[in-house]
User: Fold this.
Amino acid sequence: MYREAEKQLKSSLKNEDIVKTHLQLAKVFIKLDQPNTALEILGQALNKYPYEISFLIGLARIHDMLNESIKAVDLYKRALSVESSNLEAVASIASFHFYTDQPEIALRFYKRLVQLGVHSAEIWNNLALCCFHDGQYDLFYTCFEKALELADESNIADIWYNMSQVIFTYKLLLNPSRWQLLLVI
Assistant:
């Protein structure tokens, strides 16, 4: 079935070069478990249409899928240079910086998402975690409160878990003698 789709899409590209057809062909190769071929297709298409955001995001997604985070982040940054309000690019860069122990940079990107109008429990939860790890102790609690306001059944447990971990760690930071109690237990 996918081979037939590949054949038809390639035929379509010969007749008329359309952005969506390149994207669909890349998806077919992803389904066929051929990410390198998908990268080639999107790379060639990006050479034809250098400012097409869909190709940049598609390439970045594939690199993310292949655990090539540095290449993915570079492509997301290129996407932001073309379209500064691309939510996927902003969120992906924020996540990358948080998980590479750069919460101060991640915080800037998560704040940007909020400025762009994204108000979800997950974003506020991540903002709270970034504030805490960046040492902005005055802000993390209010971010957690906002996350709890927006939470539903699918994510409230994660928010409570993160909040309890942060508050526990924060209390230990305020009173280092509690570390001794933990060592005894």
Summary: The radius of gyration is 21 Å.
